[in-house]
Structures are given as C-alpha cells and as structure tokens.
User: Fold these one by one.
Assistant:
Number 1:
Amino acid sequence: MKRTEIKSLLQTNEFNGMVNVKGWVRTKRGSKNVAFIALNDGSTIHNVQIVVDVNQFDVKKLEKVTTGAAISVNGQLVQSKGKGQTVEIIAEELEMLGEADPNKYPLQPKKHSLEFLREIAHLRFRTNTFGAITRLRHAMIFAVHKFFTERGFYNIHSPIITGSDAEGAGEMFRVSVLDPKNPPLKEDGSIDFKKDFFGKETNLTVSGQLEAELAALALSKVYTFGPTFRAENSNTPRHLAEFWMIEPEVAFNDIHDNMDLAEEMLKYLVQYALDNCEDDLDFLSKRQQDAEKDKKQDERQMELIEKLNFVLAHDFERITYTRAIDILRNSKPNKKGKFVFPVKEWGMDLQSEHERYLVEKEFKKPVIITDYPKKIKAFYMKQNDDGNTVRGMDVLFPQIGEIIGGSQREEVYDKLYARIKEMNIEEKTLWWYLDTRRFGTVPHSGYGLGFERLMIFVSGMSNIRDVIPFPRTPQNAEF
Ligand code: 4AD
Ligand code: MG
C-alpha cells in the first residue's frame, strides 16, 4: 500500500478507507485491551493516533513498539472520538521497521533541556521543538528566494574558498593541503604557499559580498545565500563559526534605497512565517512562554506571534550613529553604570547591550543606525564628505541586536584605493575588486542578513545553537 503523509491524513474528509502510515513512535499508552500510539513522520508537528486492539496482535511485537521505534501501520482511517484530534487509524497490520531499545534510547517522552538536546543533535530532529524549527527554517529559506525572485533579483553562488578577506577583519579559517608538521618553506623560513593546492593562501569565505558586487555591476540586482565562516572566538548565544548569510547587492541604490529594501525584506519574511507556519509558530510560542516563566518580569519577551506582528506594524526608526551615541550617553543605564561597556566617547563600537537598549527601551521598535565612524567599519563602505563617517547601516532587532549589516559601497576608485592602503589591506588580493571601480563604476549598495539571527527572531528560541541543525562554535564540531 502506498504511504500517506500524516499531514495530509489530518486534513482529509474521506473516511473509512484503508491507509498506510509510516513514522516514529512518540508515545504508547493504553490498557490491557487497547493501546494508543502517537505516530509522527515530520510532515507536521501533529501526531496521528493509532488505535490498537491488543488482543489481535502478537504481544511480543507490541512490546517493542516503544518511543523512538519506527513502524509501518495499515489500518482504517476513521473520524476520531477523542478530544483534540480529528482522525485516527484503527490498526489492522503493524510492521516493525526499526526498534529503539527503551533502556538505551535517550529521548524519552518528557521535557529535555536544550543543552542536553545539543549533545544528541543527531536525534533532536525527532523532538517537537526541532521538527518545528526545521520546517520553519525551510519556509524561511524558500521565502528568501521568493522575495528576491518576485523583485527580479538573480541568485549568485559566490565562492566558498577565497584568497581575499571580504571584511578585512582577519577572522578566517585557512584552507590548505600542506602537511602542517612539515610544510614546504621559502628561503626566509616562511611557509611556501606557492606549493599549496591553489598556489596561494586561501581561506573559507567570511562573506560573498565582494563577488556579489561584481555581478551587480552587470546584472543590477543580485543576491547570495550561502554559508559563511568566521574564526572569531565569540561564545555568545548569537554567534556561530559557520552560519548562512543572505547578501543582496543592487546597482544604482543608495543607502536609503538599501534601508528600504532591508525593511521590506524583513517584513516580508516575518509575514511569510505568519501566513505559512501557523502550527509550528503556535507550538514555538507556547514553548517560549513556558521558558519565559523562569525569567524576571522585566526580562520577559513579548509573546512570539505578538512580537512578529509588532514588527510588521511599525516603521523602523532610522537614526545616525551620532544620535545613537547621544541617546546612549544620556540614558539611565549608562548614568547608573549598568552597561558592561559604558558609553563615553563618539567613535566607540556599539555592543549588543547598547543596541538592545535602543530597540527595546528607547524606541520600542526595530532601529536602523547609519553613518558610523569609518574607524569601526570595513574598507568598502562609502565615505561621507565629513571625512570621519561612512554610509554603513546596521538593522537592530529586539532580543538580537544586529540582524543586518550593510552599506552603500565606495564606488570611487581613488577613495577606495586610499582606504585599502590606509587599512593595510593586501591590495594584490583585491585587484579584481578594484578593477570594477575603473570600468563602468556606479553607486551601489547591499547588506548581509544573518540567516540564523533571523531564525532566532521568528522562532523565539534564545540560543543560535538551536536554530541550525549542526552548530559550529568554538570547541564544538561533533556532528
Ligand atoms: O555585519 P557583517 O559582518 O556584514 C558583512 O559580512 C557584509 N559583507 C554584509 C554585506 O554588506 N553584504 O555580517 C552581516 C550579518 C550580521 O548583521 C549578522 O546578522 C550576521 O551576518 N553575522 C553572524 N551571524 C551568526 N554568527 C556570526 N558569527 C555572525 N557574524 C555576522
Ligand atoms: Mg556587522
């Protein structure tokens, strides 16, 4: 018999036919005569209930139907009499596909901590939480492509192995086939990378932006959506060493167009989640409310769906860095010494405590900060006439802080070249990037959305390790 997915079974109106379902047992309960099996196949957060007349089946076989086991069931689909479900299956045949020894299977039908689930990341897909997150993640990936496709953007695959440092921050993982114990050396004793696989030093990319710019200067509107890697030793709930980034790049756009695009995109993605992921969001909302109970009143987050609607309902506040510093300097937490990093001088980098203050306390909505000091931003940002600031923009969200970083790009060759020199960036790794400023250069802008930061926001999870299947963080690359 052909298998029917549980999702479509639960939506059906045709009863009293035979169906086949396959899946993993969530729970089995019941009495001497009748057993109820809750079966899930990942197509939806909901389980289907299998009703088993115990007397009609081999006792030994039924005993093995335990949490985590995989089974195939043929039975009659009937309207359910039980509360909270619409259909159930009266089992006629039951086949064991894969047992799960209850003495060894680590996922029991009780609440497990997220920390524990990270240690069994190979099995955590089988929980309601990670099932919901995985489906939501897929929906968001699809929505990203849909958003850009509807607006005439082309998706570019930027390289994963590169010879340049797009952010100029030196936080890269080396890619090499040289023997680390015995590398070929040059006469001066340094490693001879000419003998390496690519004949030069290469790394995993920190961003696809530079290559996206090349494409935008021909196709006008492009975006990348790829894995990016950062060897920064940040052990926070918002940092991964391997994460996915969406980077649109648009020719002829200035910083204001760039902000408009970012705001429109974020709202589109949130709306898509609300429209298409109702069951999973309902579950995640309840989970979040549960987790919030342990927190102090003033640290509690807004209920998930309310929070998503809240973002849709408000224009993002747009302020300059200079204004942000003024507000922060005069803020209560700063005056009372509550910030870990006190706000004193113009020129300091903003920490996530500052970003969150602006969003959650001062403006109570998402904030876009522009015109940062050039000293704290990357070489490629468009320089303002004041000589001190650049046309960069960060989009700040509640709970997260920075969710997007971007800028208008410096399109004037001499200015870009001078900045590269000033920042001691190796010009020879960027000759091709500089070339675009010599041939048909135009104003252009783009930004990067950290996909997992978006996922934290739409799922209401509080740790970035729980919104990507297999997180890569310092000292952790197990699965
Ligand atoms: O601000 P970032 O470093 O900007 C860039 O990489 C630019 N090249 C983007 C562009 O203009 N095309 O990173 C962009 C976003 C951040 O706002 C954040 O959401 C996310 O990427 N991000 C991280 N997410 C998870 N873990 C990390 N270690 C991250 N670092 C940045
Ligand atoms: Mg940034």
Number 2:
Amino acid sequence: MSRSESESESSSSLENKSCEIIKGINGLDKIILREIHGTTVEVYLYGAHVTSWKNDQGEELLFVSSKAVFKPPKAIRGGIPICFPQFSNLGSLEAHGFARCRLWSIDPDPPAFPPNVTNRAYVDLLLKPTEEDLKIWPHSFEYRLRVTLGPGGDLMLTSRVRNTNTDGKPFTFTFAYHTYFSVSDISEVRVEGLETLDYLDNLKNRERNTEQGDAITFESEIDKIYLSTPSKIAILDHEKKRTFVIRKDGLPDAVVWNPWDKKAKAMADFGDEEYKHMLCVEAAAIEKPITLKPGEEWKVRQELSAVPSSYCSGQLDPNKVLKGS
Ligand code: BG6
C-alpha cells in the first residue's frame, strides 16, 4: 500500500478534528489530538513538548508545574521534555540538550504508517539544527517525532534520528523521554519493574549500585539511572487507584527522579510542594551512548497507558514486543 493510501486510513495530521493547531500559552503554537472516546493530548511545537494527556474523564495524567515558564529559551517544567542530544549536563552542551528548547515544525515528509493502522490521532514533528546549533553541536541531523493518541487513549511517542552529515562523520548522543507523571501523593506510589537492577546514582556522582528486591517506594529525593531495564515498567498510584504502564522499545535505561522538598524550593519554575504530586520515570539511552554513521537512522518508541489499579502487580512481561509505529 502506498503512503498516501495508508495515511488516509488514519486521522491524518492537521486534516480533521482529531488534530488541530491553536495558540497556547504566550501565543506559542500548540497541537491538540483528540480521540473518539474523549481522551486528548496537547503538544507544543516549542520543544515538541507534550504538555497534557487527559483520559476520557478529562483527568490530567501528566504533571506540569503551576510555575512552568512557557517562554523560550527555558524548557517547560513538566509534561514530556525530549532530552537530546544529551541527557544530563555533562560537557559543554546545555543540560538535557537543546531539542527541548527549539521550535520544531510540522514534518512535511513524515514516515508512513504500517498498513493496518486505523483510528489514530497523530502529528509528525521535525527538528533540524540551525546554524547556531551547529556551532555548539557540529552535526547535521533530522529528528522526526510522531506523537500518536491510540483508540484506547494510549499515548505513543516514536523518535527517529538520522545522521545527515555530509562530512562522512558519525555522531554520538544520549537521550531520554523525560516524562513527568501526575500522582496523587508520592508517598502512596510504587514503581515495579526495576527491582534488583543496577543503577547509577546521580546523587552520588553516578556511583553504581544494585536496587533491592522490593518495588520502589519514595520517602526522599531520588535521582537514579536504572540500567538494562525491562521493556515494561509500572507506576502504581494507590490513592488514585490508577496504574501507569510504560512500554518502551530501544530504550534500555530508565531514570527515576523526584526532587523532594529542598530541591523543589531551589527550582524557580517548580512549586515548593509540587514534588508530592509528580514522579519522573524516563525511558532513556544513557549508559551506552548511541552512535550513528551518516545515513543511519535510530528509531525508538515509548507507549504510555493509564489503567485502573485492578491491574495486578507482578504481571510485568519483559518480553512483550511493541508493534506498529
Ligand atoms: C532528571 C535528572 O532527569 O532531570 C536530574 O536525572 C535533573 O538530575 C532533572 O535535576 C531536572 O532537570 P532540568 O534540567 O529539567 O532541571
């Protein structure tokens, strides 16, 4: 099936009510995706930043700080920042890379959907480096992000990074989908899927340690990079009776971050008490940086679902393979 045929089966980008572009905060362009049962997703072109994911009851599933600044060059605090071409603030590049602080465009040449895809609202975004970017990271690339809202309300992000260098040089990068989940009360939350894994502790100079055998719970600041994680991780919110399931493909690491009270107070764009209502679990590629030769493409995916907590814990299936794009 040709691209145009397969795409016409779906709710194509910016062509109908399932996807529209409007002005958001401070006049920044924002795309709204709508699914037939009422779930919605909002994505700012600034940073290709998902800032909202609401279920069919209109409940917000992502955390965005009440103090978030929607103004370049600051990254939006909350939602799903894209960390590229580096996670963290090692070296001369800005913290978590520049992709989250650049204006993306609607992709004029989006990748095709697999032929069996129907009833999805989606948008395809594109980032290419500016002359200024090339001065701080001298590599030519095309980063294509597809944000898709599935018929069951699942939120999927597919990233494709291509090396378009014409000088024959490879480039190397690290990456994270820095997802901020909204939780009722951090002390009532547990994360399953990371037990017994090795992690690098960002609070101890990336010292390597091994997690204990129980699900992870929270009573103080945490900033850990879990290594070689399973393709499925769950965040169980006891009070909300809700479980977030993160499925990921091609992203071996998972960062777990909550700033807790002291760091919360130190961040200008974060409320003092807001740490109680958020948790970042970030599908990432950090320990083993990705190297692409000219012409090579790297494709990874994260799929988020929110299910009632009748979901049984301990049922994580690390072998589940993601299908479709
Ligand atoms: C997390 C890092 O991913 O992001 C933390 O592990 C960092 O170390 C946090 O503090 C927030 O980063 P930023 O740049 O958005 O303030």
